[in-house]
Amino acid sequence: MTTLISENFPKIIKDFYLYDESTSDGTAHQPVDLPFEIDRSALLLDAQRLPWDTSYAIRRFEIVKRSGEVAGTDRTLTNNHDVTAQIDFNEFKAIGKLMEDLNNIGPVTYLSFKNMLPGEYLEPHMDSLYGPLSVYIPITWPSGCHFKVYNQGLVDFTDLRPNIVDTGGSVHSVINDSDQERYTFSFYCDWQSPGWNSILRKTKVRYHK
Amino acid sequence: MKIPVKIDFKSNGKACKVLLNGETMATGKGPSIEFETPDLEPRRLQALTMVGEFEVEKLTLDGIDTQSFVSHGFVAGGHRGWKTKGGLITYYFQAPVWRWYIEWIQHDNSYFRKLSKNHQGFLPL
Prior knowledge:
The complex is a heterodimer. Chain A is α+β, with helices and mostly antiparallel strands. Chain A has a single domain (25-69, 82-201), classed as Jelly Rolls, CATH 2.60.120.330. Chain A has helices at residues 11-19, 40-48, 73-77, 93-105, 194-201, and strands at residues 29-31, 59-62, 64-66, 83-85, 108-116, 121-125, 134-138, 145-149, 163-165, 172-176, 182-189. In chain A, the strands form 3 sheets. Chain A has a 6-stranded antiparallel sheet with strand order 1-9-7-11-5-2, covered by helices on one side.
């Protein structure tokens, strides 16, 4: 699918959105339903109060952190590090409930919130940490926000549905071409656990390329 | 399709020559050289060669900053990199640049490349 975006984005992004006319066959991203209600109004209030880390390309907040420095592939392969919550879940109750609901499906290995301002973007890239598949859930998705995967079209966030996305195996780019802030959260999980595996098996998304 | 090329580089003050598929496109002492290519056949491999003593800092093809690809030039002596002493350096690319560059990103971040980078540092392969 081709998308015309504002002139102020870098040319690689404009060309990618304009000339990559691909559509999704479901192997790189697909909407999924989770077995609990997501209270987006409450999550948005919590998210807006997070102490955002501004050292990344877009504002990010990692809900838990591992002890010790674990880098590269070892980050994916090493599971024996203590994990510490970075916020008090009594103070951020909606996020606390979200963590509980997600972990009730199966282990969540990483979760972060993202806040993308109008005009911000992530150039085409592949993620290199934690695992191949992540789950993206929009809290808000203003018109003009796009998440595009090379040769696999736009990720479908209609009705703010969660999507499993092969961010580790597919080049993708995200932009906010709206005049409003965009809030999302995304996470990695143990896809071999029964709960997450049953969700993945209902999709066409490929675990390995 | 014709595309603009811009090469930012440091040199030793002597002129540097730029060739595309063996044809001279431009010469200059830096800090940058710009020119427009002849018509490029889509998906055909193009060889962009710089001759002289220099260090490439940035390579912009069709208005697209190729970022870390600049480190992936083929230099004299069978090595890879972005600088040479009195030799030449060749970058290979295709038009359209956006598609070639995204596919290069995909290959440069393949599972096997990630393992190499994580455990052995940067491998310019």
